[in-house]
Amino acid sequence: MPPVSHSAGVVSFEDARRIVAQHAARVLARETESVDLLSATGRVLAEPILADRDFPPFPRATRDGYALRVQDIGRVPAQLALVGEIKAGAIPDGSFTVNPGQAVSIMTGAPLPPGADAVLMVEYTAQSGSTVEIKRTVKSGENYVPRGAEARQGQMLLDRGTRVDHAAIALVASVGKSRLQVFRKPRVAVLATGDEIVEIDHDPGPSQIRNSNTYSLAAQVQNAGGEPVLLPIAPDERVRLRALIEQGFDSDLLLLSGGVSMGKYDLVEQVLGELQAEFYFTGAQIQPGRPIVFALCTLPERAGVPAPLIHEKYFFGLPGNPVSTMVTFELFVRPMIQALSGEAPQPLIFLKARLKSDVRTKTGLKRFLPAVLSGEFETAEVELAHWQGSGDIAALAGANCYLVIPPDRQQISAGEWVSVMMR
Ligand code: AMP
Ligand code: MG
Hints:
Elements: E1 10-11, H1 13-24, E2 32-36, E3 49-50, E4 60-61, E5 65-68, E6 78-86, E7 102-106, E8 118-121, E9 125-128, E10 131-134, E11 144-145, E12 156-158, H2 166-174, E13 179-183, E14 187-192, E15 197-198, E16 209-210, H3 213-223, E17 227-230, H4 238-248, E18 253-257, H5 268-274, E19 278-281, E20 283-284, E21 286-287, E22 293-298, E23 312-318, H6 322-340, E24 350-355, E25 359-360, E26 366-374, E27 381-384, H7 393-398, E28 401-405, E29 411-412, E30 417-422
Parallel strand pairs: 1-20, 6-7, 14-17, 14-18, 15-16, 18-23, 21-26, 24-27
Antiparallel strand pairs: 2-13, 3-12, 4-11, 5-7, 5-8, 6-10, 9-10, 19-22, 22-23, 24-30, 25-29, 26-27, 26-28, 28-30
Helix pairs in contact: 1-6, 3-6, 4-5
Bound molecules: adenosine monophosphate and magnesium ion (MG).
């Protein structure tokens, strides 16, 4: 593995994405498991999927109509002799060779008979007895797919590293596989920090806050294809925090929430420094989520743990403010989980919508502001949610997307097309 080195500091959004992508390219998913096709959605292929035969395996009619020879219908209307019928599933045994002047009735999905070089849709014909009247011409090769045109036997249909969705499932089913080799889901430890944070089954004191980040992060980890490992809340106390961080390094990736802003008791960076962590960035020029930390910790060798990969662990120190935690996960953590799952990090997906009312901000930060998207396609509209800042989970829950504001924009007027990131 080539070393990747960056000086820590506050970086632009683009640099932060690039740095994560460079590190993501170094991680390797290795362990695999076999899963049933029905539980494979969202998993990442650890084996290529090959065509077990030609696709389609026979020249397949794509319309109901008549298989015929195009040179017989140079002039229309024309009359052809009807010599048979081929249904989908019929065995192409050669009993229906189409000779000059002949046509065969054919159904969608049926094999084109020898001699025919096109299918004419039934709408452009009239049948009376054993004669078919042809009212329109058709080009050679129309309305059927030649054998092997979609894929040749042995050809790779899906590569290792593909995330399985319903379209991939269709392909896997069509090559006759009911089980798949996929990569093991990465284990992602989630550690919330803060003296004011209490577990959700505890009664919070007047100045305490229930722990929501552990659960929102666990949900995001699951959604990204990882297996969340929930750690107990770490107090703002060095020894206990360090013990829990070390426990977190038993997983493939560690996510901390809280304790990474510049507060006096924000010990995360300090403890990670003690653990010889290498920091790649300690902030990004975004809002919300500016105080985000990305680093690597090289752990002392341990008996029974194969070197060198296993004792190098990446971690993110995510800001504690719940909205910031969620946004920074989408922007920076998801690509790392994708890589640990065996998939190449995927680009962020944006859509465009018209801004419903004017927005004013300060320049300098790329902003991902909770917003409400309504309408579809040409009528898509987006409006900022009314929020009280990065702690406002009620506003976020009522929103359904983020309005993305480039760092050089101070004012965006209603009616402008703007970028929206779905969540
Ligand atoms: P910090 O990043 O630790 O300074 O925390 C920033 C804000 O987020 C504070 O108001 C915290 O109370 C809040 N916060 C931190 N951790 C959590 C958590 N696990 N669940 C809910 N709110 C949190
Ligand atoms: Mg804190």
